[in-house]
């Protein structure tokens, strides 16, 4: 298992970027369905421009979750704690159709560069 | 006194699907710059997936996997308008010019499922199937191109990972067909 | 001193599944010092799935240079099976650090319906793998 904070610090140092502020931040994705079971919404979209967001809990998200951003697109195919994905810009988290719960929490490590 | 431009040509004949044709030639001694390169290919369908590599004085200009359709000009376009033009001309001085044309070389890679799970970069070793260029080789006349029998999947349908797909009509190619390489030289 | 000159460096990748993104991770050869222009084209494969000769976008490609220090942006990849296809390149002007990584992601946007994808997630025989090539017009000092 990779230590996320160490990994992020090394990454940023390698790229010559100084970290101004960093924190972990949960993002809740809701699945909303009407009374007939039709899914109205199972995704969330938000802005993370000029920031780096690292996904910290991919192993807790349902298989088939798709996260896209300006710099990255990932499809969760297997649960592993050794994959660290990085996002920048408009981030969209899309739950798979097979997910039938009502909410799901993605945990990110948010980095603001100086 | 020679002025202006010269279009130097090399003709290649492709006689079967998947064939690789190598040529070498020497640039005209009165011209010192290579400004552009273009191909003409007999059939539209042959353009896609065929590749053309090119090098001068044993230094690579186009990789062997450079696609032929990016070097082809249309009927109503003057060759020097739609060539691959080099903004910084390549200096030549009776230079050894070599190229390799491979018919439908990329189609063969489609069935490669080893890039799991969704796909990935194709290694240069897969694209440049054989070591083409032999260093220090004597310059021969361009009509003496050498041919090898690199046979690939051919016919009306080709197989991808065990099942068959019928290509769109545009991919129909009749063999043999001719490829002409045009080099734009300037003083 | 060696003279810098233009070369074209293709990076090819294969797309095997309509929904799974492709990750690009490669080291550029050390003789490449600058990328002046970029062009991304569909090479082969999509023509097996359609009779159209032109699709404006078959996927999106995000590209990062110099080991993720520089995000070039997102490029739409068209399918253009016509001889009149554009030859234009995108301006880039990127100075390349020696032995740096070229990274990126490609997301397919076409042929994702049930005709191409079975319920178990595997592809049907209507799907065809396809190849996309990134052409880097580079300054090389080899």
Detailed description of the structure:
The complex is a heterotrimer of chains A (114), B (187) and C (142). Chain A has 114 residues and is mainly β. The mean pLDDT of chain A is 91. A 6-stranded antiparallel β-sheet of chain A has the order 1-8-4-7-5-6, with helices on one face. A two-stranded antiparallel ribbon of chain A has the order 2-3. Chain A starts with a helix and ends with a strand. Chain A has one helix at 4-14, and strands spanning 19-30, 32-33, 39-41, 43-55, 66-68, 73-75, 86-94, 103-113. Chain B is mainly beta. Chain B is 4% helix and 39% strand. Chain B has helices spanning 44-47, 124-127, and strands at 5-14, 20-26, 33-41, 51-56, 59-62, 84-91, 96-102, 119-121, 146-148, 158-160, 163-165, 177-186. In chain B, the strands form 3 sheets. Chain B has a 5-stranded antiparallel β-sheet with strand order 5-4-7-2-9, with no helix packed on it. In chain B, a hairpin with a 2-residue loop joins strand 10 (158-160) and strand 11 (163-165). Chain B is globular and about 55 Å long. Chain C has one domain (5-140): Jelly Rolls (Sandwich), CATH 2.60.120. Chain C is built from no helices and 8 strands. In chain C, the strands form 2 sheets. Chain C has a 4-stranded antiparallel β-sheet with strand order 1-8-3-6, with no helix packed on it. Classes of the chains: A mainly beta (114), B mainly beta (187), C mainly beta (142). The interface between B and C is large, with 50 and 47 residues.
Q: Any idea of the CATH class of chain A?
A: Mainly Beta
Mind summarizing the main beta sheet of chain B?
A: 5 strands, antiparallel
- How many angstroms does the end-to-end distance of chain A come to? 28 Å
Determine the structural class of chain A based on helices, strands and strand pairing.
Answer: mainly beta
The N- to C-terminal Cα distance of chain B equals 11 Å
Overall geometry of chain A comes to: elongated
